[in-house]
Each structure stands twice: as C-alpha cells, then as structure tokens.
Amino acid sequence: MLDRFDPDDEGSSELAGGPEADMVPTVDDPAEGLEPSAPTVDDYSEKDVPRELKHEFWSQVLLFNVALFALSLGLMFIGFESRWRVGGGLVAVGLFALVRGLKRYRAVKRDPDWVDDGDD
Quick count: other Cβ atoms within 10 Å of Cβ 41? Predict the structure, then answer.
C-alpha cells in the first residue's frame, strides 16, 4: 500500500502529493556571510630586549637544562644500576648547575637595570 507522504520513487526526495510539496519551508542559513577575522599580532621587532638580558636568559635556560638532565640521569644510574661513581658525579654536576643558575637568576632579579617598570 502506498502512503501519500512516501517519495514517488526511492531516489527522489520530493513529496508525492501536490499540496504537501508547497508546505516545505525554506530556511535561510544564518551562518552565511560570517567569516572569522584574521588574528592580529603586535610587531615586536622594534621592542626587542637588551642583548645582555637575552644572553643571560639563554645562559640560564642552558644551566637549568643541564641541571635537570644531570640530576635525573645521575639518580637513575644510582637507583637502577647501583653505579654510585657515575651517578654521584652526575648528581654533583646537576646540583652545581642548579645552584649556579639560581644564583644568576637572583642576581638578575636584583639588578635595577633589568627590572621591568611596566611603562610599555
């Protein structure tokens, strides 16, 4: 038995009856014409930090990376392989790099020439 709301054939999407076809609403797409705006980025090429401060920053990054690597590797040598000489040496190097980095960091924080005033 054929229902009057079934499509005429299986491939068609139109309604079978005439009056029902007129009742299909048309909807405007509200997202039409909306496009995201491109993000903007401030130009920092003229607002560069002093060369000495940049050098100090990368020196401290290197010191703290050496400290983290040497401490963790030294502790693994001691804990997993019981190699106290190699592990102890690496722990000593890591502690030295950590203390040296902390001292340099505190010295930079105390220096009034490199303290940010917030007057940008």
Answer: 6
Nearest to 5 by CA among 64, 29, 13: 13
pTM: predicted TM-score of the whole model, two decimal places: 0.57
DSSP symbol at 16:
S
Could you report how far apart the first and last alpha carbons of the chain are, in Å? 79
Q: What is the pLDDT of residue 120?
A: 46
Sign of CA dihedral 87, 91, 92, 94: positive
CB 64 within 8 A of CB 97: yes
Residues contacting residue 9 through CB under 8 Å, at least 6 positions apart: none
Report residue 56 as tokens. Answer: 């100090």
